[in-house]
Automatic annotation (TrEMBL):
SMART domains: HX. It is found in: Secreted. Keywords: Glycoprotein, Repeat, Secreted, Signal. The keyword Signal applies. This is Hemopexin a. The keyword Thylakoid does not apply. SUPFAM superfamilies: Hemopexin-like domain. Its main location: secreted. The gene is hpxa.
Amino acid sequence: MKLLSQTLCLYHHLDHHHTDGVPDRCEGKGLEMDAVAVNEEGVPYFFHDHHLFKGFHGKAEMSNETFPELDDHVHVDAAFRMHYEDSDDHDHMFFFFKDKVLSYYQHKLEDGYPKPISEVFPGIPDHVDAAVECPKPEFMEDGGDMYHYDVKTKAVTSKNLQNLPSCTSAFRFMEHYYCFHGHQFTKFDPKTGDMHINYTKNAQDYFMRCSTFDSNSDHVEREQCSRVHLDAITSDNAGDIYAFRGHHYLHKDDATDALKAESIESAFKELHSEVDAVFSYEGHLHMIKDDNVFVYKVGEPHTHLDGYPKTVKEELGFEHADHIDAAFVCNDQHIAHIIIDDKIYDVDMKASPRVPTNERPMGVLKHVDAAMCGSTGVKAIVGNHFYHFDSVMLMVAAKALPEQHRVSQELFGCDH
């Protein structure tokens, strides 16, 4: 969507704490992030000291591996990506450090940078502590300090944030605003400057995918409301939903809406963790991990069938499938729909041997993280949202994406 006006919200506080060595964002209660920004592909970049975490999981790398100029002498204080189509800086990433600012486009430093902050953003003080892009209708109208910089007019206004903690970084994600402070974050309303009541959470629980979490973590709420995308999802014949993310899964009882969260290993011990895709067929969960298919009976305890795991080639007939992104079976049909990259295939589960057929492009959907099919149609999950299609045929034939729905809220009832 084209934004007609755009504002930058910049925070000024001057207080940083750093650690030595290679950081691990899943250790203890988590890390304090110095800056957070989303790249042009929508992947969040989390900066800590001289290290960078790309996305919601994975190990830290040195920031200068991606941005060579961010050497030992450059510590990122704040960062944001400009998304304003009327500006020459559209899709540029800006990094603030001390009194300087750097501008990158497609990971390459623009000519003439670094420049003084006062030259690029006149009226903004040095030592910016956090920065986030605020579309004009969302930025604060009533009043650390926050400075609003209007990209179009270059006008600067300042506000005092009496209700917010001192933000070490700020982040706009899924149309919400987050102030990170220490290992926690607070959601706030940019129109009023007020933080949401009782909304100070552990950043590790909601923005990281870890094998273990702090002992005080609410496992159900974490899996219900996590901002980390799902790896796989399915619904069984009773309508119960099984959703998998990293080392944990969430079960939703269709009859009662009750939620239960457990480690994958506790319920599917042969699988351990990290499910690539899953589909339900004839009372069994077919769970795909790497090049293997594990089959479990629906219902507790989940019994692993003898003779499994089998290879993807043995079970589904794919000769060279490096990674299966999603799989689903609709209603009481016997066709497993398998999504690999931007292609979808059909596998007749009653055939022997089973072979993939009917290869076709996914249409407007270039990538799918997970998918499931129920009585109302197909839900294709991309990131933190899903798209609903009445049938597989309509999903493949779609010329435009339908309305987005939030996974955490509309599938699992998360209220924040």
